[in-house]
Every structure is written in structure tokens, then in C-alpha cells.
Write a structure and sequence with these properties.
Elements: E1 3-7, H1 17-27, E2 33-37, H2 39-48, H3 53-64, H4 67-76, H5 82-87, H6 97-104, E3 119-126, E4 131-135, H7 140-148, E5 157-159, E6 162-166, E7 184-188, H8 204-226, E8 231-233, H9 248-255, H10 258-270
Parallel strand pairs: 1-2, 1-7, 2-3, 7-8
Antiparallel strand pairs: 3-4, 3-6, 5-6
């Protein structure tokens, strides 16, 4: 029986995808097809390329657990100059998503999507058309960059004449794109709602991030209502913010209970 894996977007919360991947490895099974949005595209590409869940965990801990090293890596991909930012030059205040991908992705990933060991695609949004763009072939890193390109943080990525931004705006948990390629689908939804103290006024940046979360969460709920996956996992990680990558250890620990939940759900699904 073929099954598909849909990994949703959600920033740092996407670290919770790792225990799901480890569960497949423990059971000795692999999805026939993988689709990812935003952070889900990163995790999905790594798994589709042949990395194990344990290897992805090790890589994430190495890249994100030390706050000082994380800040150092982010400094490498900062905007061109402070003066460009102040003067409002086009795109100057936004980070180049392709540079971020180069810094934060394993060097072992294949060059092109077609070279992945498991069929893989990621979802981006056509900025001007407002429609989903499924990237199932072409340069892998550029495609992932398009899928993670949250507009106020990253510059849009141009592919085939289209300017692409974060896929979460149109399909936060990309189930529908692999529906015809699998007998059942496991979806992991890490979008959630804004984290923080409800009695505290959110700042401007928090409002931008949180507003995007609210939008994506609403879209994910509606899509799940009309076209649900057979198995949907929603880890209890709502206390973590979208950019809390340095809390990778805590996010992994909080999402660990999903392993048993997934094993039970898979057992029921495979017995049908």
C-alpha cells in the first residue's frame, strides 16, 4: 500500500516533523511520495534525498541548538547594507532566501528535485497570480527557497518568469497535490496560532508573523475540512514561536508523543 507524506509550514515548529520521520524509520517503511510547504519543504527534501530521521535530527541540533552559532549563521545572510535598508532600495531589507537555504541545508542534498530518492515536490505561491505553484522538478535549493520565502523576511524567488513566495499562503499542509499518488496520506500540521502572553500587546514584527500564522492556520483548517488526509498529526508545540529555532531540543521533546500516536494510526490504517 502506497502512502504519501505532507509536511506543513510553521517555521521553527517544523522541527516537530523529525519524530514523524524517525517513526517511519523505526517501522521500516517509507512514503512513496513527499510534499512539503516552507519548513516542511526543507524537512521533506532532506528525507526524500535519503537522509534518515536520526540524521536530520542530528543536523538540526547542530545547526540550531546553539544560539550564538545560529546568530552567526544568520549574520552571513543579512541584507546587503544598513544604508540600503534605510534608503528603501528594492528588496534591500529582505534576506535572500536562496542564501539562507545554502547556509542551513545539508551539503549532501542533490542538485535537482528529480535526483531525490523519493518522489518530492514543494509548494510556493505565485505572488501576482495568488495561486499555488507545485515544484516537482528543477533546482532543489531554489525550489525550497521559493517555498520558504515569507514576503516581509525574504525576497521573492523568480522561477520560470514567476515571482514566488511562501507556499503557506495558499497551501500550508500540501495534501491535495499528492492525493492521486498515494492510497492514503499522513499529514503533519505545525502551523498553529500565534504564541505568547494573551495579556501582552504584540509588537509590530510579532503582528506580522502572527497575522500570517492566523491566515495560514485558517486555510489549513478549511482545506482539512474538505479534503482531509487519512492521518493528520498536530503536535502540542503551540508554546513555541515561529522563529524559536534555538529551542530545537525543547520542540523535539514536546513533539515526541507523536511517535506513538502515529504508530497507532498507521496500524489502524494498514489493517483496513
Amino acid at each position: 500500500m502506497r502512502f504519501g507524506l505532507a509536511l506543513g509550514g510553521g517555521g521553527a515548529r517544523g522541527v516537530a516533523h523529525i519524530p514523524v520521520l524517525e517513526t517511519f524509520d523505526e517501522l521500516g517503511i517509507r512514503p512513496s511520495v513527499i510534499a512539503g510547504t516552507s519548513i516542511g519543504a526543507i524537512m521533506g527534501a532532506a528525507y526524500a534525498s535519503g537522509m534518515t530521521g536520526a540524521e536530520i535530527r542530528e543536523f538540526a541540533l547542530d545547526r540550531f541548538s546553539k544560539r550564538s552559532e545560529l546568530i552567526s549563521r544568520l549574520w552571513q545572510v543579512r541584507p546587503r547594507s544598513v544604508m540600503d535598508w534605510i534608503n528603501g532600495n528594492s528588496g534591500a531589507g529582505q534576506v535572500d532566501a536562496e542564501r539562507v537555504v545554502d547556509v542551513f541545508l545539508p551539503d549532501t542534498l542533490p542538485t535537482r528535485i528529480e535526483e531525490c530518492k523519493t518522489a518530492f515536490s514543494c509548494v510556493a505561491t505565485d505572488f501576482y497570480a495568488g495561486t499555488p505553484v507545485v515544484l516537482g522538478s528543477g533546482p532543489l535549493r531554489q525550489s525550497i527557497a521559493a517555498s520558504i520565502a515569507l514576503p516581509f523576511l525574504f525576497k521573492p524567488v523568480q522561477i520560470n518568469g514567476r515571482f514566488l513566495v511562501d507556499g503557506g499562503f495558499v497551501d500550508p499542509v500540501p495534501v491535495s497535490h499528492i492525493r492521486d499518488d498515494a492510497d492514503f496520506i499522513v499529514a503533519v500540521d505545525v502551523v498553529g496560532k500565534p504564541a505568547g502572553d494573551p495579556s501582552t500587546m504584540p509588537g509590530a514584527f510579532e503582528t506580522l508573523i502572527g497575522g500570517s500564522q492566523i491566515l495560514m492556520n485558517t486555510i489549513a483548517r478549511e482545506k482539512a475540512r474538505y479534503a482531509p488526509a487519512e492521518i493528520t498529526l498536530i503536535p502540542d508545540i503551540h508554546e513555541f514561536k515561529v522563529l524559536d529555532f534555538y529551542q530545537v531540543k525543547d520542540i523535539l521533546a514536546a513533539s515526541e508523543p507523536m511517535k506513538e500516536e502515529l504508530k497507532r494510526a498507521l496500524s489502524l490504517q494498514l489493517d483496513k
